Amino acid sequence: MNPVTAPALIDLLRSKSLRCTFAESLTGGMAACGLVDVPGASDVFDGSIVSYSDDFKINVLGVPREVIDDKTAVSAECAVSMAEGALRLSNADISVSVTGYAGPGNGPDGTPCGTVYIGYADRNGIGFEAKLFDGTRDDVRRATRDAAYALMYGRALQL
Questions:
Q1: Which residues have a Cβ under 8 Å from the Cβ of 42 and sit 6 or more positions away?
Q2: What tens digit of pLDDT does each residue of 138-159 get?
Q3: pLDDT digits (tens, 9 = 90+) for 71-84
Q4: How far apart are alpha carbons 100 and 83 in whole angstroms?
Q5: How far, in Å, CA of 110 to CA of 112, rounded?
């Protein structure tokens, strides 16, 4: 299956009059950058919040401290909460978040490098996808961006 490209995602969102937003951790803004590289992205893109630190996730996106303390920042619960926070802070119809370990090495709790959670929030609900990507740090980050685009595309089809 071919990855969803930023232009294809923008075209779909535009055709459905939908706006989107991201909450990005391990990708550090890659998802947003890919969209704004496409002329006309402002028709559909509200913005992205790069929330790299735990405190930023808590203080800006509203991730409950208990989620970070009990489940860690690399968890399904954190990804969903990040997506909900970005949606709440925006005028978007759909929000996708990414959190994970890009490496090198495993997470502090032994979670394997390449473990990624991609959360979503939209009017039809909330949820997440769990992924395990191989490769270098850059490979994991690019694969995460591509998976975030694919998840947003699939959610947009349902709206």
A1: none
A2: 999 999 999 999 999 999 999 9
A3: 999 999 999 999 99
A4: 14
A5: 6
Which region holds residue 21: left if phi is over 0, alpha if psi is between -120 and 50, else beta? beta
What is the strand order of the sheet 20-24 is part of?
45-50, 20-24, 94-100, 115-122, 125-132
Cα 154–85–53 angle (5° rounding)? 105
Spell out the domain ranges in the chain.
Answer: 6-158
Structure tokens given for 141: 């980050």
What pTM was computed for the model?
0.96
- CATH assignment of 6-158, given 3.20.20.110, 3.90.1150.10, 3.90.950.20, 3.40.1030.10? 3.90.950.20
| 26 and 116 Cβ atoms separated by less than 8 Å | yes
d(C-alpha 12, C-alpha 45), whole Å: 12
Q: Using an 8 Å Cβ cutoff, are 31 and 3 in contact?
A: no
The pLDDT, as a whole number, for residue 1 is 61
